[in-house]
């Protein structure tokens, strides 16, 4: 076996273990430098993944697949982890503590996502999923003296356990009917024709279990409470990395493994995408808490990404990859602003963002760029992302594209409500909101990426096209 195929995962595991060991031997007052060490380590691993882009293959008879598709998703996870770490240094030092535990477990959550993206069979998939989920449970409840954080951790562990049980039951049914846990072999068996009706039950359970992970309606009810109670940087990582990893699994399972029966499921997925977009956007309108508003916005974003899954085509996979990447910058940028404002005002209420443009012009600009990008306003990156998504269904499901466009316009309303508070209203407290260097750097990176990809989507589109085609070649 070519162990160099797992260089990225091995390096990530070593980094996570090293951070935990350093937490045991480094004095407490010297642990603030662990954030920068984490950023440097993750950046090095990201550079390694870019350098090994063309190194493809599989391990253990197809249990672990390394292709451009999985490598691109790993780069999404690493990018999100770097930005979250950069933007959370001050928040962790002042609000959370436990620097070594926080950064170490965050790295292990990233490792779990990587395993999910490369999983070639059910066992590997489930191991990666549980590694990610357990790491997030710890991170969500890390502020053990905060009642909301503890409540969010309890809700997340209960609902995550339930969804994992449902998913595992569905996987066991598919294994019992096909006699294999290998995703490619399952595809070969199903392509031969007839399949027992019980397989439909297994697929329904898989949709339910994965629907929780991507926070699709009606499996989204955990998202607002967990997003509100979790430490804000972890909320950002939940909304980007975890969601991207879950979509990597959705595509690998349904587009590759169940391609033989996918024609029977496209309408159901299209309806699920439409309902998710509608509910997420409409329920976001009356929210007064910025984290709950962004939580329901995240639900709506899951609906948009599901549009790319409907056709199960190279164009659809490309659109999912493209949108998942640009979504990282908008979401992490927005939650970085939320974390920094909370650290200095102690509030997540939208009304307390009054006059943010005067108190912190960079924070207000970052929030403006992030919200308009998520709404799909040109020339920001979100417009290009939604264009690629809706273009995949305009022929077969034009009504779905229309619903997506209408809901994007609806989202403009509640996004602009936040913008008006920041730029129109006078601040109750005129004192400036300071930005630490890592926080300012995170915002600048997110804004520049959102603008550059919006104006020049071609290079990223070419890379995602290559990744999507490698996915179908190895299928």
Walk me through this protein's architecture:
With 475 residues, the protein is an all-alpha fold. The chain has one domain (3-474). 76% of the residues lie in helices and 1% in strands. It contains 19 helices and 2 strands. The chain has helices at 7-25, 34-51, 68-96, 99-118, 122-140, 147-178, 183-190, 198-213, 222-229, 232-257, 266-284, 290-310, 314-345, 356-359, 361-375, 381-391, 398-423, 437-455, 458-474, and strands at 57-59, 64-66. It has a two-stranded antiparallel ribbon. Strand 1 (57-59) and strand 2 (64-66) form a beta hairpin. The chain starts with 6 loop residues before the first helix and ends with a helix. The mean pLDDT is 87.
Major β-sheet, in short?
Answer: 2 strands, antiparallel
Terminal Cα separation, in Å?
Answer: 20 Å
What is the molecular shape? Answer: globular
Give the neighbour order of strands across the main sheet.
Answer: 1-2
> Any idea how many domains?
1
Instruction: Report the count of strand segments.
Output: 2
**Individual helix count:** 19
The helix-and-strand class reads mainly alpha
Q: Percent of residues in helical segments? A: over 70%
Along the chain, the helix and strand elements come as HHEEHHHHHHHHHHHHHHHHH
Strand fraction:
under 5%
Cα-based radius of gyration, to the nearest Å? 21 Å
Q: Which residues form runs of ≥5 with pLDDT under 50? A: none
Overall pLDDT level: 87
């Amino acid at each position: 076996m070519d162990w160099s195929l797992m260089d990225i995962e091995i390096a990530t595991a070593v980094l996570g273990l090293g951070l935990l060991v350093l937490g045991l031997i480094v004095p407490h007052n010297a642990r603030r430098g662990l954030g920068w060490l984490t950023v440097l380590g993750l950046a090095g691993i990201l550079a390694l993944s870019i350098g090994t882009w063309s190194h493809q293959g599989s391990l253990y008879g197809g249990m672990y697949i390394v292709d451009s598709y999985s490598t691109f998703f790993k780069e999404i996870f690493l990018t999100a982890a770097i930005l979250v770490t950069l933007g959370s240094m001050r928040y962790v030092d002042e609000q959370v503590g436990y620097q070594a535990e926080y950064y170490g477990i965050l790295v292990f959550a990233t490792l779990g996502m990587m395993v999910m993206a490369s999983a070639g069979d059910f066992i590997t998939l489930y191991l990666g999923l549980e590694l990610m989920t357990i790491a997030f449970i710890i991170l969500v409840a890390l502020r053990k003296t905060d009642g909301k954080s503890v409540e969010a951790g309890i809700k997340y562990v209960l609902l995550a356990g339930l969804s994992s049980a449902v998913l595992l039951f569905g996987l066991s049914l598919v294994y019992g009917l096909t006699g294999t846990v290998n995703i490619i072999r399952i595809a070969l068996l199903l392509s031969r024709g007839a399949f027992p009706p019980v397989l439909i039950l297994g697929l329904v359970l898989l949709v339910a279990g994965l629907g929780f992970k991507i926070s699709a309606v009606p499996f989204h009810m955990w998202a607002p409470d967990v997003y509100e109670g979790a430490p804000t940087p972890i909320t950002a990582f939940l909304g980007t990395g975890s969601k991207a990893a879950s979509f990597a699994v959705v595509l690998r399972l349904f587009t590759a493994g169940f391609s033989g029966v996918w024609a029977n499921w496209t309408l159901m997925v299209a309806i699920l995408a439409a309902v998710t977009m509608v509910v997420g956007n409409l329920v976001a309108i009356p929210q007064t808490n910025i984290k709950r508003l962004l939580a329901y916005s995240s639900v709506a974003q899951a609906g948009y990404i599901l549009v790319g899954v409907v056709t199960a085509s190279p164009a659809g996979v490309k659109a999912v990859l493209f949108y998942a990447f640009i979504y990282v910058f908008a979401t992490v940028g927005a939650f970085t602003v939320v974390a920094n404002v909370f650290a200095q005002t102690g509030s997540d209420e939208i009304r307390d963002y009054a006059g943010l443009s005067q108190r912190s012009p960079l924070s207000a600009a970052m929030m403006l760029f992030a919200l308009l990008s998520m709404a799909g306003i040109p020339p920001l990156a979100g417009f290009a992302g939604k264009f690629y998504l809706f273009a995949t269904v305009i022929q077969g499901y034009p009504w779905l594209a229309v619903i997506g466009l209408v809901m994007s316009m609806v989202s403009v309303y509640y996004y602009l409500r936040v913008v008006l508070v920041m730029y129109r209203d006078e601040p109750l407290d005129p004192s400036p909101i300071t930005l630490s260097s890592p926080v300012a750097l995170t915002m600048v990176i997110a804004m520049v990426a959102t603008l550059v990809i919006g104006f020049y989507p071609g290079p990223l589109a070419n890379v995602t096209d290559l990744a999507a085609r490698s996915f179908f070649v190895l299928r």
